[in-house]
Design goal:
Helix 3 packs across helix 4 and helix 6 crosses helix 7. With about 250 residues, the chain is mostly helical. The protein has 12 helices and 2 strands. A two-stranded antiparallel sheet has the order 1-2.
């Protein structure tokens, strides 16, 4: 935290006044737009950004009210998770993804995980298409259709046995991840995710690193890698599917 934010929190924790609470919410309000835009990028066109911003605002308010300085040393990290969780909860309540799409996503994850166990390596798209009894072009379309479901799953907050919040995406960012020594749970998950990331090809690793570690947008990544924004989105979705299927085999 900056000195200004630290002073604001110190004063608020002593006084708990509504005025100081409002100042803290305003101070951290930019986190709402930041989180909403990152989630909004891969969503269908019928989803309104304003809805995500509204959900995110509720998440920030919840973070301020729940924050315990004795348990959570970094409020900004804690707030991002709460905001992200509130947005994802809001999306679920909107029931924006049809059940048929969710079933397709589960079937694809199961196919990739089963083939990886059988082959001892990550399967090719030709092998997955053959396993599912569909054409490769149909598989490609399904991968695009379910891509944003997998990305949102990676962002979904998880609560561990110590009531700490984290997400799989947070473990990609070393400097913000909880210390491995704090929990066997964390250490095991970090190792599993590190192993899963190693299974990605160089291009996929680069996109995942730039998106989650450097926190760049798809548009910014497309300029760096000199690829279209659509191609970056495609690489991102496939990389996340690989990570999920790899973790599901653990």
């Amino acid at each position: 935290m900056t000195n200004r934010k630290t002073d604001l929190w110190s004063q608020y924790l002593k006084e708990k006044s509504p005025e100081l609470r409002e100042k803290i919410i305003v101070e951290y309000a930019p986190l709402i737009k930041y989180s909403a835009l990152r989630i909004y990028q891969g969503l269908p066109k019928n989803i309104e950004l304003d809805d995500l911003l509204s959900y995110g605002a509720l998440g920030l308010i919840d973070a301020v009210d729940r924050y315990d300085a004795n348990l959570n040393s970094n409020f900004e990290y804690y707030a991002k998770i709460r905001i992200r969780g509130a947005i994802l909860d809001g999306l679920r309540k909107m029931d924006w993804a049809p059940q048929t799409l969710r079933r397709k996503a589960k079937a694809l994850e199961k196919a990739y995980a089963s083939l990886e166990q059988e082959l001892g390596r990550y399967p090719t798209e030709e092998e997955v298409a053959s396993f599912l009894g569909i054409k490769e072009e149909d598989l490609e379309k399904q991968l695009q259709d379910i891509g944003y479901l997998n990305i949102l799953a990676l962002e979904q907050p998880i609560e561990n046995s110590d009531n700490d919040l984290f997400s799989l995406a947070d473990f990609i960012k070393d400097q913000n991840s909880p210390e491995p020594s704090e929990s066997i749970e964390y250490a095991e998950l970090q190792k599993s995710l590190a192993d899963a990331i190693q299974s990605l090809n160089d291009q996929e690793k680069m996109v995942i690193t730039l998106y989650y570690y450097e926190e760049l947008t798809s548009k910014e990544i497309s300029k760096i890698l000199e690829l279209s924004e659509g191609r970056i989105s495609q690489i991102h979705k496939k990389a996340v599917l690989k990570l999920k299927s790899k973790l599901n085999t653990k």
